[in-house]
């Protein structure tokens, strides 16, 4: 899914993509490589200026279009996807930083020149010193390599005084002040600025730009270009492996190739989500901008290099040749990542900020839907007056019922997105407001746990009698559910299940074994898949039953895990009678219903981080239970928070896509894979800083454990539950990328 989410942004993206294909095809770029390296304007520059793409973000009073950072990011992504050559990126980086400066005559004059089509470059790193002399500033030193410097008409420069204070200016380089370098990205020029007693005039001195806004704009635009590069690789790889044949079949039909291609998409979606989150932070508070910029530097820009390297291998030998375009995009990826600085620096930066603040992924204003808020205030304030008197449950199930949950269920707030009479048919905006009002009062929204996967299936496919019998009691906390799907011989291949359902008078008799069943020991009811037609194709002969877990013949046996906890069970069904009214839909419809249940499971799991949470890193840091240095732990915190932020951005984009009417379908599997990888990598990073502290693993004493080692040992619960990473990659490859079978 590209950065553009709204109709207007998608139209803008389509328009820019079409223009880029016409104005600067890759063949034309190849023909200009020597000129581009020397800093000459590409043939398409004047046409780009006529389109106004270079000034879409600049204020109207300065000759721009008055749009924002998001619109510029949408444009940048599409130009990156087309490998658009020359100074576009370096110019908009420079002009965006100038636009972040306070109003002044210099700012207006410089922005006016950028709007007219002047090319630019941004040197905001170290290397230049500023010394006060005779009422002005004198600059000396040599910068690190600067993108777009050769040929730039305006160079936005930050120098540093002896006291460490920044001095900003906009220079027109003189002869000999720009030293060209052999650029990694062959479609763009790179050079160093060398200054010797260069005096800054009043007309060149720029009021210091807002530091957070400038940093954010730089990170967001680099990441947007990277998102475009990554999407080109995905498109090109899919086209190649779908047509390239070996052994008489397309190589894209091989599972190993499908998994690698699917992982490219997963990483690309994370890059795009991070870039989008940074772009949308343009009007946020400074600390929010700092978080978003650091996350891009840590998770998006390094990842595009990995995408490029993996994609080149999927092209085979042809991808390693000069004639193939892959190396041009690969070089662009390396260049973009390098332009944003060191990954470890950003990790430390994000970790330090994350100790004091967290990214706000809310998408509704605090005063949105005032009438709903007024209604909620009455309901929720009354809920606060009620005791939390639910009956404590064994295992890891929540407390059962209680007056507070009953009150919220009566107000249709346990599952407000459900249709009436159980919910409010609340859309994403209403749900967000409800969540805000609950959080303001420190009220937890009751969870039906497995019921969150089961009830949507009953609402879609159940009879009115089944809905009447089960939905409201579940929402009130009176009924707990478990899911009886997996079997010893049917895990990932769920349709290969062998539990049988034999028809008898008034119902069915179920026999078989289920395994890895959460909450089976606490559940009142279970949703069970059983084979009702052994002669039908395996997907067609399955039915969906509601099983009373207190029925004769149901034997639940807890499974003790490597953690010492028993969060899962195996369930034996020995001639268990299930009445006809507990068959959902018609016989043989079970697989269709199971897909609904599993989709809700994967959507739920895609939005939660139960292992490897950054909160565990904060706990370890606060307790001092780490062998690594504090700085090393802060860096790990940054990496963990970065993964969580990228995942949250991906989830928020999914919500907003639904608001705009987009059907994500199998793309939910992308979120599940991102979630699983984040939990795995976060947990492993935490073990690295514990050192010999991980020689000790405190046994769990309750439902959950905060011990990092036990937390790591519990990873299989999320890496397998809801479908393994590999199974999700199969889904992505076949249903999202449409690779051949």
From TrEMBL:
Q: Name one GO molecular function term.
A: flavin adenine dinucleotide binding
Known cofactor(s): FAD
| Domain annotation Acyl-CoA dehydrogenase/oxidase N-terminal: ranges | 6-117, 406-478
Q: Which SUPFAM superfamilies match?
A: Acyl-CoA dehydrogenase C-terminal domain-like, Acyl-CoA dehydrogenase NM domain-like
Which UniProt keywords are given for this protein, alphabetically ordered?
Answer: FAD, Flavoprotein, Oxidoreductase
Domain Acyl-CoA oxidase/dehydrogenase middle: residue ranges: 482-576
> What InterPro entries does this protein's entry cite?
Acyl-CoA_Oxase/DH_mid-dom (IPR006091), Acyl-CoA_Oxase/DH_mid-dom_sf (IPR046373), AcylCo_DH-like_C (IPR036250), AcylCo_DH/oxidase_C (IPR009075), AcylCoA_DH/ox_N (IPR013786), AcylCoA_DH/ox_N_sf (IPR037069), AcylCoA_DH/oxidase_NM_dom_sf (IPR009100), Mycobact_Acyl-CoA_DH (IPR052161)
Recorded superkingdom: Bacteria
Give residue ranges for domain Acyl-CoA dehydrogenase/oxidase C-terminal: 220-343, 588-737
List GO terms (cellular component aspect): plasma membrane
Q: Family per UniProt?
A: Belongs to the acyl-CoA dehydrogenase family.
> Which protein, by its recorded name, is this?
Alkylation response protein AidB-like acyl-CoA dehydrogenase
What species is this protein from? Nocardioides kongjuensis
């Amino acid at each position: 899914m590209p950065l553009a989410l709204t109709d207007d942004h998608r139209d803008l993206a389509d328009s820019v993509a079409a223009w880029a294909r016409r104005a600067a095809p890759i063949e034309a770029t190849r023909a200009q490589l020597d000129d581009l390296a020397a800093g000459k304007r590409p043939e398409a520059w004047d046409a780009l200026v006529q389109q106004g793409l270079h000034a879409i973000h600049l204020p109207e009073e300065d000759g721009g279009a008055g749009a924002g950072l998001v619109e510029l990011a949408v444009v940048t992504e599409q130009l990156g996807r087309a490998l658009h050559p020359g100074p576009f990126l370096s110019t908009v980086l420079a002009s965006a930083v100038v636009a972040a400066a306070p109003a002044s005559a210099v700012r207006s004059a410089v922005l006016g020149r950028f709007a007219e089509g002047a090319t630019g470059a941004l040197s905001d790193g170290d290397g230049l010193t500023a010394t006060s002399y005779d009422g002005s500033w004198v600059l000396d030193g040599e910068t690190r390599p600067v993108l777009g410097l050769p040929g730039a008409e305006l160079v936005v420069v930050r120098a540093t005084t002896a006291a460490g204070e920044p001095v900003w200016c906009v220079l027109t380089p003189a002869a000999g002040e720009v030293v060209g370098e052999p650029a990694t990205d062959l479609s763009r020029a790179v050079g160093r600025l060398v200054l010797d007693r260069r005096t800054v005039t009043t007309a060149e001195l720029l009021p210091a730009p807002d530091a957070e806004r400038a940093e954010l704009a730089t990170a967001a635009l680099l990441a947007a270009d990277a998102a475009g590069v990554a999407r080109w690789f995905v498109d090109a790889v899919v086209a190649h492996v779908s047509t390239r044949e070996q052994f008489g079949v397309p190589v894209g039909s091989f599972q190993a190739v499908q998994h690698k291609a699917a992982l490219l998409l997963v990483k690309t979606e994370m890059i795009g989500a991070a870039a989008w989150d940074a772009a949308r932070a343009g009007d946020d508070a400074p600390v929010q901008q700092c978080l978003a910029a650091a996350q891009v530097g840590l998770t998006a820009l390094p990842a595009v290099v990995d995408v490029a390297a993996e994609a080149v291998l999927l092209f085979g030998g042809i991808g390693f040749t000069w004639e193939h375009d892959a190396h041009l995009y690969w070089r662009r990826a390396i260049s973009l990542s390098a332009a944003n600085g060191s990954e470890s620096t950003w990790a430390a930066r994000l970790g330090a900020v994350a100790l004091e603040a967290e990214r706000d992924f809310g998408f509704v204003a605090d005063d949105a839907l005032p009438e709903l808020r007024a209604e909620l205030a009455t309901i929720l304030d009354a809920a606060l007056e009620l005791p939390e008197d639910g009956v404590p449950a064994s295992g890891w199930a929540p407390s059962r019922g209680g007056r507070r949950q009953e009150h919220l269920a009566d107000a249709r707030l346990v599952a407000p997105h459900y249709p009436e009479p159980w919910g409010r048919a609340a859309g994403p905006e209403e749900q967000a407001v409800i969540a805000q009002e609950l959080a303001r009062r420190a009220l937890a929204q009751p969870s039906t746990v497995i019921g969150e996967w089961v009830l949507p299936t009953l609402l879609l496919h159940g009879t009115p009698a089944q809905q009447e019998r089960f939905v409201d009691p579940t929402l009130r906390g009176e009924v707990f559910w478990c899911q009886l799907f997996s079997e010893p011989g049917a895990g990932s291949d769920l349709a290969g299940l062998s539990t049988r359902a034999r028809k008898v008078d008034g119902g069915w008799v179920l026999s078989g074994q289920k395994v890895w069943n959460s909450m089976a020991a606490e559940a009142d009811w279970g949703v069970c898949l059983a084979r009702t037609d052994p002669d039908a194709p395996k997907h067609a002969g399955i039915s969906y039953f509601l099983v009373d877990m207190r029925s004769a013949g149901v034997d639940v046996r807890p499974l003790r895990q490597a953690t010492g906890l028993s969060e899962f069970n195996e369930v034996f069904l020995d001639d268990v009678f299930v009445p006809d009214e507990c068959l959902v839909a018609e016989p043989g419809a079970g697989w269709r219903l199971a897909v609904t249940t599993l989709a809700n499971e994967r959507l739920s799991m895609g939005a939660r981080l139960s292992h490897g949470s950054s909160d565990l890193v904060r706990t370890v840091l606060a307790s001092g239970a780490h062998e690594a240095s504090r700085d090393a732990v802060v860096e790990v915190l940054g990496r963990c928070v970065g993964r969580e932020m990228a995942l949250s951005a991906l989830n928020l984009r999914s919500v907003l896509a639904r608001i705009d009417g987009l059907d994500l379908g199998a793309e939910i599997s992308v979120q599940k894979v991102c979630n699983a990888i984040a939990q795995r990598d976060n947990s492993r990073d935490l073990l690295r800083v514990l050192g010999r502290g991980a020689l000790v693993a405190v046994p769990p004493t309750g439902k959950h454990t905060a011990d990092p080692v036990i937390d790591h040992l519990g990873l299989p619960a999320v890496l397998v539950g809801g479908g393994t990473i590999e199974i999700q990659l199969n889904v992505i490859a076949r249903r999202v990328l449409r690779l051949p079978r």
